[in-house]
Amino acid sequence: MVYLDYAAHTPADPAVLDAYCRATADYIGNPNSSHALGASAAARIAEAGAHIAALLGCGDMEVIYTSGATEANNLAILGGAGAYRENGRRLVTTALEHSSVSACFTALQQKGWEVDLAPVGADGRVRVPSQAPGAGAWGGTLRELIRQDTVMVSVCAVDGELGVVQPIREIGALIKSINPDCLFHVDGTQLVGKLPGWGYCGTSVPDTAAAAAWDGFGAEGVCDHGVVSPATSGVVPTGQSLLPEGFFRDIDLFSFAPHKCYGLGGMGVLLRKPHVALEPQLMGGKSTGIYRSGTPVVAHAAATERALELAAENADNRWDRVCAANARLRAFFGTFGYVHINNPTGKNDLPAERSKADTAPQKWPSSQRPVGSAPAERSKADTFLQSGNHECALSRRPHRAVPGDGMGMPGALPHFLNISIDGYRAEDAQRLLSEAGVCVSTKSACSSPKTPSRIVYNVSQDKKRARGSIRISISHLTTEEDIERFMEAFRKCFAGSPPGKS
Q1: Helix, strand or coil for residue 421?
Q2: Which neighbouring-strand residues pair with 253?
């Protein structure tokens, strides 16, 4: 079988499995216990958490271990909204989110919260005005949705179907400039471990004198938020960081799952700024933190730490291999007149003009409003959760100055190739490829089957493409033989004219 569904799950690296097994054997005590073995286990969890924070460049954010990104998202959104409900009843998210995020907002909306959808351009990115109000800023941007009673804005760093990278730092800066008390949650599940290296990260060591030899970043440490000076913290460089400097500056809550970056399943992480309170979603005894009950597992922490270490150590090599595979597949699909690449690029076939309604902020869909609520005036297209459109370009490697980004982040990740084939519904195309020995997905693995892709429709404004989209997700593990076998299977399944209307 040819596996091209790495966005759904990645195989655990043998070194991660080894770290898990060693930690399981070495730390037998309950980290919540007060005896020596419990204290040793708790110390190892704390050490892993500090290293994870350093690898990500998130400074003093607390590492909360969960059962997966779904639980981490639930704790962030439901817990954050619950803790700050006295500040207001307004929330903002996007139509690009994973179901574990959108379901939380639906649940809150059914409890009386007002949920707005931020407008998204044809590049798949949230519209953030680059100028001050009245100085030529776009109409229909995130700015219009943030008020003093907005409790939280939640945006995925990368969506799970097209791989579009959101301008997180710009979004965070806008939120905090309007309402400093508004929480900013980022679902980073599809981002962590996929970028090339961004310089050196550090980790704490007992001997602070050893840090004096570090001259890589000067006195400011590895990011502009809370990772302290090497001269005072005992931080020394250990490898490349996974995210660019300053990425976490305005982020309050950040969730991810290591099984998306060659770690283990059944594990998740929520990063929390020290000032942020959460309403616990699990009730039980004390743990290493106050926001998530349950016995923490040392092996989970150690395995997650090792997965991120490997991602940082091999970041550039992995990125280059994925870019090469992406380029080859794009060239291959370009030979078929009835195959459409849905990922936003600098050259696409989207409509040149869009109506004002297309770019305006959207309310949470009426189909998800609670029984008894007043239905709003909506067109048929609104059921696809559409927003606005404009273009972007995918670069082979992030540059240090990408317009509108400020951190050198790419417009989209090369790990994702989303296509639609004229005349085929998504489930039919997936079935044919599966029978030919190729594993791809129709949408996110957690999405409802046999439904159109909201994300593809938001970007393409084409219902047929949304109904027929399949996601090909590649990895540094994808070999030339995998690509050849995929192309052979694709020709066998879809060569010739399309079978008819989808």
Answers
A1: strand
A2: 185, 272
Residue 238 carries which side chain, given as an amino acid letter? Answer: T
Residue 66 dihedral angles phi and psi, to the nearest 5°: -130, -175
Domain definitions of the chain by residue range: 2-6+315-494, 201-239
Residue 138 DSSP label: P
Architecture of the domain whose range is 2-6+315-494: Alpha-Beta Complex (3.90)
Distance CA 324, CA 333 (A): 15
The segments of the chain whose pLDDT lies below 50 read: 131-139, 200-238, 346-361, 364-407, 501-502
Rounded CA separation 360/145 (Å)? 10
Place of tokens 């927003």: 387
Question: CA–CA distance from 50 to each of 56, 203, 476 (Å)?
Answer: 10, 7, 27
What counts of helices (H) and strands (E) characterise the chain?
A: 13, 15
Mean of all residue pLDDT scores within the chain: 79
Instruction: Give the tens place of pLDDT for each residue, 141-191.
Output: 899 999 999 999 999 999 999 999 999 999 999 999 999 999 999 999 999
Q: Which of 66, 93, 460, 122 is nearest to 271 (CA)?
A: 66
Cβ 49 vs Cβ 204: under 8 Å: no
Closest CA to 386 of 459, 286, 486: 459
